[in-house]
């Protein structure tokens, strides 16, 4: 059977090598997809699916860049996910997995503890203040892209500036907010 | 720039680059290589965590940023009722007024139509700074004119956060009623001939044609109206419950199963049907997470004395005969 495997371009050692590379790249793949999905938990989930997909593969085909292959399979899985899962579903999956037990109660019982509410409000206030303190153009780009969900290109069109300038504003806003909030 | 500041900037640049619509294999390879630099992973993780937080809490941040506009709307709340005399009194009416008038039918057909499919949510940012969150299976159209902002809710549910603009009243038509707005936040739902308006912020004045006494709605109050009927009812509700749909939740306090099934059928193609004499009137309190239809039905059957029988084109819910109602 090893001969047939060779003809198909797949051997157990190919797969073992790919799985080995997966283990090595796993954390960075999660980082990559966390940016794309806006959620680290979603990305963890996706990268777990990636493992299952690779383990179950019969045929790899010729692999000249295994790391690129990991990216390609992961990206396809992500597109499948985005297609089947609407925006709201993606965004709320964390909330859902944490709070599903709530459904077992007959009364609405998902009130968080009072101190959590206070902490959450304070955090929101800090976030809002940090956004308000951004330089005007940076705040505007940040608001259009991050808060209103416009693409980099649409944000550029609305502000009458180039896409790369929009990206500079967004990136600068993220850096400033992270320094203030972490 | 200090070394850690340098890393944060690079990390932010990377995250922004990875959020372009098109990301190539080479981006991944270069990103993976960059993460090998000392300090890069920590910097990136910090940036990504804040980005995720903003993504998760975007609506709340947006709401808080609009605060000054709200303050202006509150100050303007020195009402007189000149608006009842016509559209010319834009500056006079604060908050919301609601009248029975067929303005919607007069709108030109060239509005921008916004639609959501079953299971879809959509955030709409209007050019005037107002925001509309559109719930599943909903249809509304928008027309921004020089002297008025006009929205027609054809069917469905939407949360409005309206930017204050005295010169241009915000007019929402839903069936035989029109909601007039000057900067406030509220939910409008039009389903199966029933209209509800729930106020989250600001004050709402309601007037029905043929009834001179206006009703004042405050945050936490909900107005209900049956299209074609005269009169409205107002009751106290937990306003946040009414907009649970924005975070994928349906929240009920002692509601009949018929209402819940009606809501769920706006999310999924395969309809739920009710059979049995009193099935539709069984009461339910609780939170339903909107995920898969089968999972939602399973939870309902475990929480209520009902059984579910799936068939190819529907799922039949029936009260369990032995169960105490």
Structural descriptors:
heterodimer, A: 182 residues, mainly alpha, Arc Repressor Mutant, subunit A, 9 helices, disordered N terminus, B: 325 residues, alpha+beta, Phage tail protein beta-alpha-beta fold, 3 domains, 35% strand, globular
Compute the CA-based radius of gyration of chain B: 24 Å
- The number of E-state strands of chain B comes to 19
Helix content of chain B: 25-40%
The string of secondary-structure elements of chain A, in order, is HHHHHHHHH
Can you count the helices of chain B? 8
Distance between the termini of chain A: 56 Å
Strand content of chain B: 25-35%
Largest sheet of chain A: none
Rounded to an integer, what's the Rg of chain A over CA atoms?
22 Å
Give the tally of structural domains of chain A: 2
Major sheet of chain B, described briefly? 14 strands, mixed
Low-confidence regions of chain A: 1-9, 86-111
- How far do the termini of chain B sit from each other? 70 Å
Number of strands of chain A: 0
Helix and strand composition category of chain B: alpha+beta
Describe the global form of chain A: elongated
Indicate the overall shape of chain B. Answer: globular
Mean pLDDT metric of chain B: 77
Mind telling me the CATH class of the largest domain in chain B? Mainly Beta
SSE-based structural type of chain A = mainly alpha
Give an overview of the whole structure.
- The complex is a heterodimer of chains A (182) and B (325).
- The model of chain A is unreliable at 1-9 and 86-111 (pLDDT under 50).
- Chain A is mostly helical and 182 residues long.
- Chain A is built from 9 helices and no strands.
- Chain A folds into 2 domains: 2-89; 114-181, Arc Repressor Mutant, subunit A (Orthogonal Bundle), CATH 1.10.10.
- In chain A, α2 crosses α4.
- Chain B is of the alpha+beta class and 325 residues long.
- Chain B has 3 domains: 3-65, no CATH class; 94-242, Sandwich (Jelly Rolls); 248-319, Phage tail protein beta-alpha-beta fold.
- Chain B is 27% helix and 35% strand.
- Chain B is built from 8 helices and 19 strands.
- Chain B has helices at 3-18, 25-34, 40-65, 67-75, 103-106, 239-242, 257-264, 293-303, and strands at 95-99, 112-115, 122-125, 131-134, 139-144, 149-161, 170-174, 177-182, 185-191, 194-201, 204-208, 211-217, 221-226, 233-236, 249-256, 272-275, 283-289, 306-310, 315-319.
- In chain B, strands 1, 2, 3, 4, 5, 6, 7, 8, 9, 10, 11, 12, 13 and 14 form a 14-stranded mixed β-sheet that branches. Chain B has a 3-stranded mixed β-sheet with strand order 16-19-18, with helices on one face. A two-stranded antiparallel ribbon of chain B has the order 15-17.
- In chain B, β9 and β10 form a beta hairpin.
- Chain B starts with a helix and ends in a 6-residue tail after the last strand.
- Classes of the chains: A mainly alpha (182), B alpha+beta (325).
- The interface between A and B is large, with 62 and 65 residues.
